[in-house]
Input
Amino acid sequence: MPIIRRLPEHLVNRIAAGEVVERPASALKELVENSIDAGAGQITVRLWDGGLAGLEVTDDGCGMVPEQMALALERHATSKLPDEAIEQVTTLGFRGEALPSIASVARMTIESRPREADEGWRRVVDHGELVGDAPAALPPGTRIRVEDLFGKVPVRRKFLRSGRSEYAACLDVVRRLAMARPDVGFVLEHDGRRALAVQPGETAPQRVARIVARELAEDGVVIDLERGPVRLTGVAGLPTFNRGVADHQYLFVNGRPVKDKLLVGAVRGAYAEMLARDRHAVLALFLEVPPEDVDVNVHPAKTEVRFRDPAFIRGFIVSGLRHALDSAGQKTAQTPAAPAMAAWQVEPITPVSAPPGASLQSLFARQYAPQSNRVQEGGSVWRGYEAGVMATPSARAEEAAEIAPEALAHPLGVARGQVAGTYIVAEAADGLVIVDQHAAHERIVLERLRAAGMGDAVAQAQALLLPEVVELEEPACDRLEEAAEVLGRFGLVLERFGPCAMLVRSVPTVLGKGDVQALVRDVADDLAQNGAALVLNERLDHVLATMACHGSVRSGRALGVAEMNALLREMEVTPRSGQCNHGRPTWVKLAHGDIEKLFGRR
Ligand SMILES: Nc1ncnc2c1ncn2[C@@H]1O[C@H](COP(=O)(O)OP(=O)(O)OP(=O)(O)O)[C@@H](O)[C@H]1O
Ligand SMILES: [Mg+2]
Output
């Protein structure tokens, strides 16, 4: 019969350390959290080789007397639950596990001095064994150094990654905690170099702006919402300001940085139809809920929480974010990306070689005369390219000439021409606007489809003169048949026509006369791809987006001035028209100031 026995303390600690301390960054997180809980106003972090060669956290907090230092290293010893009310905990720590866990798998040096004490004390623990206990000289506060992490736990040491990736994880920890506490100053040094420094006493928006991309201030929406006792504040990036990884989402619950699945899911839901599946929003959100409504004791690193009413929290975040983003309306990430600006700037200027004998003046005249003549005639240099680019007869000079100066006051200005059959170039009162015609139109069609079909009203459908038969595989027909009622509401009326075909009776009017076969096939694919995984609403949005793509003007189609202006005006009144259905911008603006910079006038 096997013998059951109590494990010795050092083994218990090492087992606990398996959960709490995974890598240098997790040890660092515990130490910085302790400094915050100790009321520090300034916290300095030093790392060597991403923490693999050592890490040290110094604070000016309350400090500890020697007896407390000894206790702090014991398991389940904490100063943070004075009345044992774990539901009401307001500190980051509460379990009394971190220090003994770290000390069991590394060499830990704790130095501490309470404010009122004349001197400090040092305790050194090496993999669970006390090896130093003596007075030490230091200013009031606490300094904890962790070295030789997993030095005697080779299995764990093997799993550590390179100094570079451990450093990235440590930096992330400090950034998140620094954002959670804008009142506290933070310094991070890596291998003797200062990597981050923020002053104490900042406001939350200042701290967010300093730590997350500076652009978030311009390309983001300020969030400040309240429902009952729950509050959500922060900055949410516009969908056009997106990233390929979700690392730039900073989420906090009651001042605690979290990577909670529910919250991440809510953010994803809020941005769902504005971002491609593989793109991620950039944001910093601070959720405040009454402490009794959230359990923070569900994850060893405390990065996940459990809400008493998760559906409420999710709904609050999704609808709040959507509302805020919608009201941002036209706003989009308009500042041309830096590389694009650079491309404008490095455009090579081909010097015109003067033919022998020609004077500079006559050369100049020859080169610019046709265009400058036209400027005088019609008020637009683009007229010069009319024949070549604006192929449609409607784009005649007279039309453009009639533009009233007030028209420039439209946010997106007046169309001046089309480039590459793909981009509309417009002049607004404050700059030059370039629109991606396909992306913009696709958005408009999607919004129209959505608006038409979402209410009780049935979208306008245009009946086909001759119903069209679309042949498909049987499962595809099954899916379409199952979705027929919903599709019908949006104007796509189809019915089963034998085992392997569908009969299409009408298509949504907004889609115009397109390729019905391709439309139905794509909708079927879409249902297959996203079928079971998504809830009805999200699924619908996918289908609508697919339909919208069919109904939109293609890139490469020449547009007349009137058509272009109509598109611009339509964009101005369409919600979310600043980004296409995949989260890319539909238009960019080069402000007059930017243009001046390009020409070195500023
Ligand atoms: N930097 C510090 N300044 C002052 N006291 C500290 C500091 N770090 C730790 N302590 C004291 O040591 C105790 C133990 O710290 P430890 O991190 O192990 O547990 P905890 O913070 O209470 O809970 P948790 O395990 O959830 O972090 C703390 O409760 C606190 O009293
Ligand atoms: Mg702690």
In short: The CA atoms of residues 351 and 363 lie 12 Å apart. The chain has 20 helices and 22 strands. The longest strand covers residues 461-471.
